[in-house]
Structure formats: structure tokens, C-alpha cells
Design goal:
single chain, mainly alpha, globular
Length: 423
């Protein structure tokens, strides 16, 4: 089949890895943006608010499914664990993701007075994200074997087709819950088909063995990465959770609209950095510390540059564009948008630091930073939103992400000195 050949064959692996990873990352980052643009026009602001909190919760639960394992798997250049061991551990974490999402919705839904429909939308949105979690372990294998291009093509085609079907279903059915059920089943089928095609290229080289002890070992080793990822999403979405408990779905939607551009910073940074993870891992493994640090510093400069460009652009044309895209007057939230973009820069930088700290295998330190800032988020989020509404939520976001960056820079410096001492 031509589609299958498209996945597997390429004359320029590095170029296609960059291009298709960029395309897939763009679709993933703007998935909710595109969906909300149509959803707001078809169903209104209240449904957009429900979608916003459902998407936030689903991404929080997705961190359980992925368990922070991708970067560790890709940087496992010496084959500490087999792919089957990564796969078995992913089956466990995905099962846990489903269980936690259901329990969470039952508890919070009762506490915040969710309707049955809102509760079901959040659960099905979480099931929709289960597909992303399961796909990720296979794409980690492809990236580890130098074929990020295959992962990028599969993700791009699956996400693009799924978004198209979501928009079509929404226009025809005008019911968010029914459309979510439909596209969850659809994207799951695409995952099965694409994985069957692409995995065969690597199947012979994969060791078909796994040890239960090693599976537990992966769970244990990656726990700090999972906890960090989970708490990172909690920290980033703490303002949304506070809005969900204090304000209404309409204001939730408005906050979601102005928060969307934040992810552009991380997205653009990922375009440059994701293809470099394996190369940086090799540099560190070979002891080329100076080259490793040089690449890291370059990436820090890129994050700062991208953040400044986005803030200037948002100041000039951000609100008019967002108001048009979401068919909502957002003129009252210009400074909140700028504050959120500053926080987005800090978040992108902290994500870079997490990856680098993982490569040098000092990831156990990460959980302390996340725990400290999570306590800060839990303590301040409700107060900030109650007193200052959306501006309080935006300011809280910037403060929390800045605190993460500060702590992670300290951990990275200590980790590098510690590794140098023992080598």
C-alpha cells in the first residue's frame, strides 16, 4: 500500500525526522486550539469551558500513562532494558491512567457539582488521550533506532485525520460527548493499523523477552520523571482547577483562549530540541561534556529568543487575533496574555532542564522541585483566583513556572558537579 510505503521509506532520514516531527508536534499542540475554534462557534462558550477543563484533566492523566518514560527510553543507548520491558511497563501505566481518571472524576464531580454529561466528557477525553500514551512507547523505540521520521509521519497522519473527523462530527451532530466517543474509537483504530505497519520494520531487531523484575525497575527508575511530569502539569493547570471550583465555565473558556498561545513557545522549542535528544545523550555517554554544554546553552538562548518574539507579537496583535479565532471579545485580557506568555517561556525552559537533567541521570532531584512548587500552587491558586479572577490565575502561572526554572538550574549545576566529582 502507498500509505505504508510512505511511512517506512525515506531518502533523507534526518530531514524527514525534523519535518514530520515538527508537523506532528504542531498538530498535537494546536489540537485543542483548532477544536475550540469550531466548538465555540457551534456549541457556545459554556461547552468550550467544559472542553477546556476536560482537556486539561486528560493531559494531567496522560502524564500517568506516559510516566515520563519517553526521554529515558530514547536515551537508553546501552540497552539497559528491552523494548518489551518498556512495553509491559506502559501497559501498566496506561491501566493506572484509566483507573485514576475515573476515580478523579467521581470525586471532583461530586465536589464541584458536575452534571452527568460533564463528567462523561472528562472521562472520554481521558480515554481519547490513552491512545497518545500507548503510541508513545512505540515511537520511543523508533526514535531510539534513529527513525524519528516514522514516528513523526504516523503521529501527523493520525492526529490530522482525527481532528478532521472531530470537526466534521461536531458540525453534523452538535453534541460534544457523542463526537468524543466516536473519535476516541476512530483514533484507536488508526493507532492499531499504523503500528502494525511500522513496527514490522523493527520487529526482528527487538529482543522478545522481558523480566518482571526489570519492568518494576523501569517503574521505579522513572518514578521521579513521572512525578515531575505529573506535578508539572498540575502546576501549569492549577489556575484552571481553581477557576473550575470558584468561577464559571464561561470564564474558564476565556482563560483557556488566552492561555493557548503559551504552548507555542514550548512547541517551537521542541522543533529544535527533540531531534537533538539522542545526539546529546551520545555526547554525554562519550564524556564530551563541553560539546554537551554548548548545545544546552544554544537551546537556552533559543527559548529566550522565542519567548521575547512571542511576547512582542502578542502585545501588538495577540488579542485581536484570539478574539477573531474564538469568536469572543477578549479585549479585557491583554495583560493577562502577556503574563501567561512570560510564564510559558519559563515552562519551556524548565522542560529543557528536565530533559538535560534526565540525560545526565540526575532525575531523582526533580521531584523535590516539583513538590515544593506544587505545594505553593495548592496553597495560592484558590486565593489568587478568588481575589483577582483571571489576572490572578495568570500571575500565579508565571510565578510558579519561574520558581521551577530557578530550582532546576540549581539541580543541574549540582548534578554536573557531582558527576564530575565521581568520574
Amino acid at each position: 500500500m502507498k500509505i505504508k510505503e510512505f511511512f517506512l521509506q525515506t531518502d533523507h532520514i534526518d530531514r524527514d525526522s525534523f519535518v514530520w516531527n515538527m508537523a506532528g508536534s504542531m498538530l498535537l499542540a494546536f489540537q485543542s486550539v483548532i477544536m475550540l475554534m469550531v466548538l465555540t462557534r457551534v456549541l457556545g462558550l459554556a461547552d468550550a469551558g467544559i472542553f477546556t477543563i476536560a482537556y486539561a484533566n486528560a493531559n494531567l492523566f496522560l502524564t500517568i500513562g506516559k510516566y515520563g518514560m519517553r526521554n529515558f527510553q530514547v536515551s537508553d543507548v546501552n540497552g539497559q532494558f528491552t523494548f518489551y520491558e518498556y512495553l509491559m511497563s506502559r501497559i501498566f501505566t496506561v491501566s493506572l491512567m484509566i483507573a485514576v481518571s475515573i476515580i478523579f472524576v467521581l470525586y471532583v464531580g461530586n465536589k464541584n457539582g458536575y452534571s452527568m454529561e460533564k463528567s462523561l466528557i472528562i472521562i472520554w477525553m481521558s480515554l481519547f488521550k490513552v491512545v497518545d500514551a500507548f503510541e508513545d512507547v512505540f515511537h520511543g523505540l523508533y526514535q531510539q533506532r534513529g527513525r524519528l521520521d516514522i514516528a513523526g509521519k504516523a503521529m501527523t497522519l493520525r492526529l490530522g485525520t482525527t481532528i478532521l473527523f472531530f470537526l466534521t462530527g461536531l458540525l453534523i451532530l452538535k453534541n460534544l460527548l457523542i463526537v468524543l466517543i466516536f473519535i476516541t474509537c476512530f483514533t484507536g483504530i488508526l493507532l492499531i493499523v499504523f503500528t502494525r505497519w511500522s513496527y514490522k520494520l523493527f520487529e526482528r531487531a527487538v529482543e522478545k523477552r522481558y523480566s518482571f523484575y526489570n519492568v518494576l525497575g523501569i517503574i521505579k527508575i522513572c518514578f521521579p520523571l513521572f512525578l515531575g511530569s505529573f506535578l508539572s502539569f498540575y502546576i501549569g493547570n492549577a489556575p484552571k482547577y481553581a477557576i473550575d471550583g470558584v468561577l464559571n465555565d464561561e470564564l474558564q473558556a476565556c482563560y483557556g483562549f488566552i492561555a493557548m498561545p503559551v504552548f507555542v513557545i514550548g512547541l517551537l522549542n521542541n522543533f529544535v530540541f527533540n531531534p537533538m535528544i539522542y545526539k546529546m545523550s551520545v555526547l554525554w555517554d562519550k564524556g564530551k561534556k563541553n560539546e554537551f554544554l554548548k548545545k544546552f546553552i544554544i537551546q537556552v538562548m533559543i527559548v529566550i529568543g522565542i519567548t521575547l518574539v512571542c511576547i512582542v507579537g502578542a502585545y501588538l496583535v495577540g488579542i485581536p487575533i484570539l478574539s477573531f479565532l474564538y469568536n469572543t471579545d477578549l479585549s479585557l485580557y491583554k495583560y493577562e496574555l502577556l503574563i501567561l506568555l512570560l510564564g510559558g517561556g519559563f515552562l519551556a525552559l524548565s522542560g529543557l532542564l528536565v530533559t538535560v537533567i534526565t540525560i545526565i541521570r540526575f532525575q531523582n532531584s526533580l521531584m523535590f522541585g516539583y513538590i515544593i512548587v506544587s505545594i505553593l500552587a495548592y496553597t495560592l491558586s484558590k486565593i489568587a483566583v478568588e481575589q483577582y479572577s483571571i489576572r490572578g490565575a495568570a500571575g500565579l502561572y508565571a510565578i510558579l513556572t519561574a520558581a521551577l526554572c530557578f530550582l532546576f538550574f540549581i539541580f543541574l549545576g549540582y548534578g554536573l558537579k557531582r558527576k564530575e566529582k565521581f568520574t
